[in-house]
Design a protein that fits this description.
This protein is an all-alpha fold. The protein is built from 11 helices and 2 strands. The radius of gyration is 20 Å and the shape is globular.
């Protein structure tokens, strides 16, 4: 029954992705998107790729903080490799074991670390990312607010973080000491990805009101759970943004398509580490190397 439910959810997500892509490419034919991409400034796309890679390195380091808080002393490089494998599973293996579940399974099997604690660490890592997205959406909403209402942004952000920290500590007290540190990591991840979006846009043309694209991108990051790897949802939201804010629909959709392509490209690297050997595990002080693991 559990396997059937998982398969059903996967089929539903893929169906949503395909349906949304169908609607998107009915409005903006893929041939037009491809022509625009071919005319883009490639050097900016390369920098965008680098920015995305940096975001994933920071993201892996954020997860590492949760592992360390549980005294799971995995080596930093090994953790990055495992993170990339998780990306590969999430993006290229629909219906299979998810990337987060894969991390929990491997670390539990190889080192005997508590599956419950590992699952909680991965879950809190995701929550930290969600909080950063909410905070950035609030900050980017500044230009949309009229007059004196703009001053409400700062107290809104402070209140959001304060409420999140209260419930976070209430539910996950073991991570009290790393709350702000992981939030900073999360902000770094999202800022790098927003920079990636900015560079993709700039590779096409001079773009005004980039902050609207950034808000739409952040919203798509939250709603990506509804589709397969966020594909379809991102393109559809960018198309809708173009309609509501009178942007160039071709540029909007092309930006979303290129971001999905960059994500796939980086995720594909994960297959290179599928059978890698865990070289080391660091000691409890997270500095000195302690023993080889295979």
């Amino acid at each position: 029954m559990k396997r059937f439910k998982k398969t059903l959810i996967t089929v539903l997500k893929i169906s949503i992705s395909l349906l949304l892509l169908y609607f998107v490419f009915r409005k903006v034919p893929f041939t037009e998107v491809w022509e625009l991409i071919k005319e883009s400034r490639y050097y900016l796309l390369v920098v965008a790729l680098v920015a995305f890679v940096i975001s994933q390195v920071i993201s892996s380091q954020r997860l590492l903080q949760y592992f360390y808080a549980n005294n799971f002393p995995i080596d930093k490089i090994d953790n990055l490799k495992l993170y990339l494998i998780g990306m590969f599973y999430n993006f290229f293996i629909p219906g299979g074991i998810g990337g987060d579940a894969y991390k929990v399974f491997v670390l539990n099997k190889k080192f005997g670390w508590s599956a419950k604690k590992l699952t909680k660490a991965v879950f809190c890592d995701r929550l930290s990312g969600l909080l950063a997205i909410v905070v950035l959406i609030e900050l980017l909403s500044f230009p949309m607010l009229p007059g004196a209402y703009k001053i409400l942004i700062v107290p809104a952000v402070i209140l959001t973080i304060a409420v999140a920290r209260f419930f976070f500590i209430k539910l996950f007290s073991e991570y009290r000491s790393i709350f702000y540190k992981t939030l900073l990591y999360s902000l770094g991840v999202q800022l790098c990805q927003l920079f990636c979006i900015f560079l993709i846009l700039k590779s096409f043309t001079q773009i005004e009101d980039v902050w609207i694209y950034c808000i739409v991108f952040l919203i798509s990051a939250v709603l990506s759970v509804l589709s397969f790897s966020g594909i379809g949802v991102r393109e559809w939201l960018f198309l809708k943004a173009a309609q509501y804010f009178t942007f160039d629909a071709q540029v909007s959709v092309s930006t979303a398509v290129l971001f999905s392509f960059i994500t796939a490209l980086v995720a594909l690297v994960g297959i290179c580490f599928q059978n890698f050997t865990y070289r080391t595990v660091v000691s409890q002080n997270h500095g000195e190397v302690k023993g080889n693991q295979s």
